[in-house]
Specification:
With 206 residues, this protein is α/β, with parallel strands linked by helices. The protein has seven helices and nine strands, in the order αβαβααβαβββαβαββ. Helix content is 38%, strand content 23%. Helix 1 runs parallel beside helix 2 and helix 5 packs parallel to helix 7. The relative contact order is 0.15.
Amino acid sequence: MDQRLFFPATQRNKIYIGDVLSKIPLKKGFVLEIGSGSGEHGIEFQKRFPDIIWQTSDPEMEHRKSIISWIDYENLNFKMPKPLEIDVTKSPWPIYGKLIDNLQVIISINMIHIAPWECSESLFKESGKLLNFGKFLIIYGPFKIKDKHISETNELFDKSLKIQNSDWGVRNLEEVDKEARINGFSQKKLIKMPANNLTLIYQKVS
């Protein structure tokens, strides 16, 4: 049964995010995606970067079923492992040895603004434990800078998020950077993306 989900935002941004990933010196190994949603990003990037193994994850069963269905649909079973059930706040994450030994990048796309702040804290904390020196943590989404929105649409989006859940919302870049430093990361690059989003590239330095 086809259980694929289709997220419009994924279709809009996957090429641009892929272009950013193409500039990172990815060695053979694993990329772990936290909060993979429908799985469309994982499929796109696995096809675009065949030398790496893209490991998806999501806490929601409906999303994991969609990811599995996408993997089947694209005939990527020989390459892509099944999604992991990872609740970002539960430590340690249930990750197998081969993934830990060969982990190059952890990436989170459009997650931290639709989750409580503790999820951001856990994302950095666990990534800091798993990633070795020189490896990368990448975060994509909308951000405020010095507590100010960078566009009117982001401000409206932030208000709509808070209506849905008071613990959600567009995060301050400075607070995210602080959390990164606490867990041994340094911001190596900030890339402006379409639709008033940013890609933050952090590297493990301690």
